[in-house]
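To: structure desk
From: M.T.
Subject: fold request, one chain
Message: Could you run this one when you get a chance? Sequence is below, nothing fancy, just the single chain.
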Amino acid sequence: MKPNYGLTIVKDFPIRGVNFIDINGLLDDPDCFRAAIDKLCALVTENIPAATLKTAAIITPQARGFLFGAPVAYKLGLPLLLARKKGKIPNKPYVFHITNEYDDYDMEIDGDLLAKYSHYIYIDDIFATGQTLAGIKEALEKKNKKILLALHVTAVKALKGIRENTPALKNIPTQEVI
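Reply: Done. Structure tokens follow.
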């Protein structure tokens, strides 16, 4: 297993001052990708009691989160809800706003699917400032839904202070594979 799972840093992308974590090396190596998915699955089953897991669904944000949330949902036999940018959900979209380190936009979740589940496991690729997770958490709470666990492939260590000082991220257990 490669120690960094094939992750590389691209400086000043997508805007100057942002160091982007490129996951393409991980996706290019089937053993690394499989190991990351297996570890995400293990983190779910180690942290969520089986009875609670039966009432849960995976929620994952567009677009790179889909790459990790979908295989975890498949392997664990859990429903999958996609959080997409506005205009992509045709069935009763529940719209909410996200502001992250270099952009802000509206996202949406299928309203009928959202109504079916009370507990969620959030899965994404990179834990940067945590603003996407915070926005989705706040949107779910307005519908009396709860994120039980937030999993990421990796986290930007330099942004840990920002995450720790974000009130919406308090009381969400988070873990990373790398």
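Reply (cont.): Strands lie at 8-10, 20-22, 56-61, 80-85, 93-99, 104-110, 119-127, 146-155, 174-176. Let me know if you need anything else for the meeting.
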